[in-house]
Amino acid sequence: MQEMTNLLAQHGLTLVFVNVFLTQAGLPVPAIPVLVVAGAFVQQGELAMAGVLVTAVAASLLGDALWFVAGRRHGYRILRTLCRIAIEPDSCVKQTENIFERWGAPSLVVAKFIPGFATVAPPLAGTMRLDIGRFAGYSSAGALLWAAVPVVAGMFFHSEVEQALAWLVNTGTGALMLLAGIIAAYAGIKGLERYLLIRFLRMVRISVGELHDLMRSGAELVILDARSGMARRLDPRRIPGAVAVDINVPGISLAAVPPDHDVVVYCS
Q1: Is residue 97 within 8 Å of residue 246, measured between CB atoms?
Q2: What is the mean pLDDT of residues 181-194?
Q3: Are 147 and 122 in contact (CB under 8 A)?
Q4: Residues 157, 245: one domain?
Q5: Are residues 109 and 229 in the same domain?
Q6: Nearest-5° angle of CA 257, CA 235, CA 133?
Q7: Do residues 49 and 151 make contact, with C-beta atoms less than 8 angstroms apart?
Q8: The domain containing residue 216 runs over which residues?
Q9: How far apart are CA 41 and CA 55, in angstroms?
Q10: Phi, psi of 87 (to 5 degrees)
Q11: Which tens digit of pLDDT belongs to each residue from 216-249?
């Protein structure tokens, strides 16, 4: 246990930087446990709180900056790519757009506390051409708040953290296998839910070519553009004749839809 403690104390800031950077870069690596352990080390005098927080903020801002630049260069395409590989891909863009549209740049302060928003918010800010100074300021404030919460928690519960580390050392491979099993089970369940949803959607999906043929044949269709207002501004292209639908109050747009017409809906 003492050897592990010395190792963490000696390389603690490096571990914090690497872990937080990988998390903000989009990899499924949890950063909160490392920050909690760092907080326990702060309470024990092995690490300085200012050093831990500055390191975490710097790593977080670097990871966010990469996505911000990607959003500026590639626009809305980077959001679609992110949400195809996310654990919760079916709602992350829509959720992020709604939050960002409602609160604007200050939403970056709480972005890291909202699942799905943490990864998508920086490239969305870049896509929206947010001023880089405002982006850095709000992202830094958000990173400081996000890192301070687990660090302070680790300081308060440093005794429990010590016991947990001791258990991990004593259990060894068994503890790692248990953690790996929990993560694998979670990923498996989410993957199954994703697969079942996609299979269902494929059953009711229409291709672009099929829609084009129906439109040319004069079929009685109602085409609904269910993208968010932000998505429509970022990509103003629209299928001819499509009716814009506000997903928050769909009844207003759907009231005039003839009940005997086929309805085609498309979104981001």
Answers
A1: no
A2: 68
A3: no
A4: no
A5: no
A6: 135
A7: yes
A8: 208-266
A9: 15
A10: -65, -35
A11: 887 778 888 877 776 777 777 788 878 787 766 6
